[in-house]
Structure formats: structure tokens, C-alpha cells
Amino acid sequence: MDDVKRVTTQTLQQMKKTATPIAMLTAYDYTSARILDEAGVDVLLVGDSASNVMAGHETTLPITLDQMIYHAQCVVRAVSRALVVVDLPFGSYQGNPLEALNSAIRVMKETGAHAVKLEGGEAVVSAVERILEAGIPVMGHLGLTPQSIYRFGTYKVRARDEEEADRLRKDAKLLDDVGCFAVVLEKIPAELAGEVSRSIRMPTIGIGAGMHCDGQVLVTHDALGLTTDFNPRFVRHYANLAETITEAVHDYVQDVRTRQFPAENESY
């Protein structure tokens, strides 16, 4: 899909119909978003994972709506092709549908993003419907939902037992029926993810959910090897930038210490 001038929700629907896998990564700042966009990523998720990788929090819960809007503003300025989706953070939509709508409207008006994402199934359907009624595209998120991590008590794979798997099937169908344009399936058995992907119209985006989803997403810091203390089995390291950057900075420090930087041709 490199020839697409601007990826839209309709583009993603067409990609599912033609069995073209969707590539999605996270982005939180202008510089990296520009690089990812130019490299051909279809969807950039301004994820509440910024709470972890940008702010150093243990969970995604502390990040605020104002902070998510700031990160999204930075990303949108960089993008000319990718669809930009913004996570609604914990506490910005669970209260009631009107609160959810107001949060989504702020994101859309203040950032210029193209869609929002929120976690949950039946419990948040009324909020999803209210946002959709306002003309704002919504991406769902099922399986391991990090905003509920204290309820789960663990980051282990979800929906292994039939009761939870059946609930996930129903939630996916529900989100599909109300009009979500896509859904993230996180850390569920690959067979279940494939079954769900085949049973609903909207594209599924997997993370730790196997190869049978309609697309895949990773946290960019994980994929590029910028995080060194998080190594779940579903992450593939496409680079080791932590090591590359460490070596580069070490060389810079040494050049400064020995007065080899700046050289004569780097001075005015």
C-alpha cells in the first residue's frame, strides 16, 4: 500500500478485503513520527504506552488527557500518509458516554488526529456509540487491556479459558456491529485471534496474538531495541538502537574530553 497518498479507515477496510496486512507502530514525537511515516507505516498509534516509554511510569494509568493531546499534536505535525489514532487514557471515558464524547472531541479538535482508541467491550459500548454518533472513528481494544492491569493482576495471556474466550468473541462482534473501524487484539491465543478475525468485518490488529490477524502493532521503542528491560516473546527487535546510541554518545563524550570536537571545519 506504499502508493496510497493518505491512509484512511476505508483504506484499512480495503486492506482486509484484499488480505493486505496492516502495519502499525506507536509514535509520540515529531521526529520519530516523521521517520515512521516516511518508512511506510500504515497506522501510527499515539499510545498511552507513552506513560511507560516516555515518562517512565510502571503502568499506563498515570498519563493524562492533556499529555496525550500534547503527544498527538507532535505526531500529527509530522505525518503526511499514515492514519493517526490516539488512545483515550484511563479515566477519560469510563465515567459515562458524555465524558467519553468530550474527551474524544478534545482529541480530534486539538490535535488533528484521525481517530481515537479505547479499551473494553460491552462495558464501554455506550461510550463508543456516543463517540461514533459524533462522527469520530473508533478503534477498539480487547484481550489484555493495560488500563485494567490492576484488575487482572498479571500481564499473562488472556482468554485461554473458554468463558473468557467466548466473552471476547461477543465483545468483538459487539464492537463490529456498532461501527468500530478496527480492533486491537492483545495477548490472546493465536487460534482465537484468527477465529475472531475471520468472523468480523473490521480489521484486527494483533500484538502478541499470532499471525492470523489482519495487521500487527508493536511499541516502536520495543521494535527498535530502545527498551532493554522488556522482552516478551511477541516482540521482535529490528534494531538495537540502545547499543548504537550508547556507543555514539560515548564517542561524542570522548571527542569533547579530548578536544577533538569541534574540529576547525566545524567552527566559525
**Overall CATH class of the largest domain:** Alpha Beta
Give the ordered list of helices and strands: HEHEHHEHEHEHHEHEEHH
Computed over alpha carbons, the radius of gyration is 20 Å
Q: How would you describe the shape? A: globular
**Average residue-wise pLDDT:** 96
The proportion of residues in beta strands is 5-15%
How many alpha or pi helices?
11
The helix-and-strand class reads alpha/beta
How much helix, percentage-wise, in residues? Answer: 40-55%
**Count of strand segments:** 8
Strand order of the largest sheet: 1-2-3-4-5-6-7-8
Cα distance spanning the termini? 46 Å
Report the CATH architecture of the largest domain: Alpha-Beta Barrel
Could you name the CATH topology of the largest domain?
TIM Barrel
Number of domains: 2
CATH evolutionary superfamily of the largest domain = Phosphoenolpyruvate-binding domains
Biggest sheet character = 8 strands, parallel, barrel
Contiguous runs where pLDDT drops below 50 for at least 5 residues: none
Q: Please, could you describe this protein's structure?
A:
By secondary structure, the chain is an alpha/beta fold. It folds into two domains: 9-237, Alpha-Beta Barrel (TIM Barrel); 240-268, no CATH class. It is 42% helix and 13% strand. The chain has helices at residues 9-17, 30-38, 50-53, 65-78, 97-111, 125-133, 149-152, 162-178, 190-199, 220-223, 241-257; strands at residues 22-26, 43-46, 83-87, 115-117, 138-143, 182-186, 204-207, 215-218. An eight-stranded parallel barrel has the order 1-2-3-4-5-6-7-8, surrounded by seven helices. The chain is globular. The mean pLDDT is 96.
